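Q: Structure tokens for this one, please.
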Amino acid sequence: MATKQLNLKMSPNLYNSAQSFAESYGYRNVQELAMESLREKIFEKSDFDESFSEKEIELVDKIIEKSIKKKHFVDEKELMKALQ
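A: Here is the predicted structure, written as tokens:
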């Protein structure tokens, strides 16, 4: 699939703030910040996201392992309440 180009207009204040943010947090430019922001909004913050980093998977594995060892089990309702 070919990439698509998008032209984005923003107010000078928003652009200047975005440029300052990009420089402060190591983005190459405002375009890279915009791309990352869109990815985060669409893929990482969605209600249903099956993608986990290796660190997240390791953390879940450790929690499960410790719960089994200590025989600390909760039902799904309690788990979901704790995660909110």
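A few notes: The mean pLDDT is 80. The two ends are 37 Å apart (CA to CA).
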